[in-house]
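Hey, resending since the last one bounced:
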Amino acid sequence: MAVLLVGLDNAILATAVPTITTVFNSLPDVGWYGSAFLIAVCALQPLSGKVYQYFSLKWTYIVFLTVFELGSLICATARSSVMLIMGRAVAGIGAAGLFSGALVIVSHSIPLRQRPIYTGLVASMFGISNVFGPVLGGLFTQHLTWRWCFYINLPLGAVTAVTLTIFFHPNEGKRTKLPFVQKIKHLDLPGLGLFVPGVVMLLLALQWGGKRNPWKSPTIIGLIIGFVIMICLFAVWEWHQQDEASIPPRIMGQRSVYSAAAIVFFGLGSVQIIGYYIPMWFQVIKGVSPVGSGIRFLPLVLGNFVGSILFGGLVTKFGHFNPYLFLGTACVAITGGIFTTWKVDTGYSMIDGIQVLGGLGAACMIQMPVISLMSLLPQSDLPTATSISVFFQFLGGAVFLAISENIFVSGLIKNLPIYAPQVNAAMVVVAGAEGLRKVVVAGPDLQGALLAYNVAITQTFYLTVAGATAGFFCSFGMEWRSVKGEQNRGGEAAAVKGAME
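The structure tokens again:
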């Protein structure tokens, strides 16, 4: 249920973003509503893997859940765009340990051969949230208030915490018995102190470059140089720490691990763009309500939901995951390419069909690398490897959203004078996506503004094509191994021993 909460948090927000940008006059901040969450998730992801190694699995999970709930409460009560972004960051800190923690629970509780189907079930929670999230977000936004998109997390989170407390009793390893001070030393806090500022500087440069500041400005150049310095220092420190590092070189240096990391980086980044800009396209270009955009988004999320279950089951039955990596990346690349051809008058029959293809592809592209790590690595390395995988997923999402926001806003400002020369471009940007028809009267000006919006949105999907194509070629780096009949190098017994008692 905690994974469902994280997925629901993202899916609900998609249809509420146009309204939020109108309420706070914050269209330029649209990327930050996703990026702030993703920055926090990916920055804390390496730490979460260490925490699960040395602290109680159950209580660590509950602490992460509590922080996520606090972030949701801040978002629900936000009085400004900045406060909402801060709440998203706090929620991201909590979410950092929820998805990876769920995968760690699966790896400790389920025998290797059955893990693909259970991993698919965990991933399907994102699919379920993607099915109901956009519609719920539309209902809350249209009939109550967008704030309920975050309030809904509070009762669901409380039920999850109570359920875990009463029914989940994992067999904790010896490392959880270490003295507290010794556990803290194992968390690699200096590495975290080097890594987090580096990631933040990179994303600020991507957000601001060419929009708030010229790319050649001292601010952007300084941020990029700062990012390079901090990441280089982080790499040196991690090499020095070896197995005590947040990202141990022994694990990260394995071909399948860095290939899987690259695939999920490009995978979630590509899919995240679709998740944010398709609902906006429906609301702005087609003029549908928030509820309507959620319903129109269902073909993609249903494809993702079905694919998560289907492909996990196929891997369990036939053993090999590699073919689905190529299938998924190819489907997402094709989907993104067709999205770039959408026009203001594109019909729904074409839109619905290609969304299903994209959903199926996304299920393969994001799920299979995680399944591969569970079959290729020993049990003792799975918490760290899982956190590395999830880290690169969310880092990809944050980076791609930052770049796509820059493409979108810059494209809108550039194209409004071309297609709607009589329209005040600054007023359109300030009005937000949902407020377009309130500041531009129907007629030639509105048609021109819609053309400008359409070009700006569809240009972001070129990034989806590039990311999915990169993921396709990275798939060649994965080892070809079957989970059927294999014994995890850590031993099946270790997996079963860690099961819930």
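The mean pLDDT is 78.

Sorry for the duplicate.
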